[in-house]
Amino acid sequence: MPISISKFFTLDFTYSNNDVYYNNNIDGIEITDVNGARDLGVLVDNRLSFAKHIACIVSKAKLRTAQLFKCFTTRKYKDLLQGYKSYALPLVTYCSSVWSPSGKNDIAKVELVQKYFSKNIRQCKFLPYLERLKFLDLLH
Asked: What pTM does this model have?
C-alpha cells in the first residue's frame, strides 16, 4: 500500500523560537512542518500548550449547556443535571489527564462551564459557587 506523503507532517516541540529544526523527508519529498495539530481530538502546539484546546472545549461545552437550557422544557434540576453530565461534561473531561490545566487562567476557563450551568439552575441561583456544587453533587 503506497504512503500518501501529502498527508504527513512533523510537529517539533520547542522551548524557544531559536531552536534548530531538521528538515524531514520521505523519498526525497520534504514533509511539512506545522506549529500545532489535533491528535485524538486534543489540540496541541509545538510548546505543549493546550490553551487553544481549552478555549475550544470551553466554548463547545458552554454552547451545549446553553442549548440544554433552551431545549429542555423542564426546570427540574435533576433532569438538567443528567443532561449536563451526559451532554456537556464529557467535552470537558475527555482526555483531561493529557491536557489537564495547571495555570490559574486555564483552570478558571474550564471552571466557567460549571459555574455557568450551576448559576442557571433555579434552586441554586442565589447560592455561592461552592454551595451550588454541593447541592448538585458536583464536588468530585
From this structure: 0.82
Determine how many CB atoms are found less than 10 A away from the CB of residue 14.
Answer: 15
Instruction: Quote the radius of gyration of the chain (alpha carbons, Å).
Output: 20
Which whole-number Å values give the CA distances from 62 to 6, 9, 69, 119, in the listed order? 36, 32, 11, 12
Pairing of strands 32-33, 9-10: parallel
Q: Looking at 82-125, which runs of residues are DSSP E strands?
A: none
Distance CA 59, CA 66 (A): 11
Residue with cell 476557563: 109
How does residue 26 score in pLDDT terms, banded at 50, 70 and 90?
confident
Q: Where are the beta strands (DSSP E) in the chain?
A: 9-10, 25-26, 29-30, 32-33, 36-39, 42-45
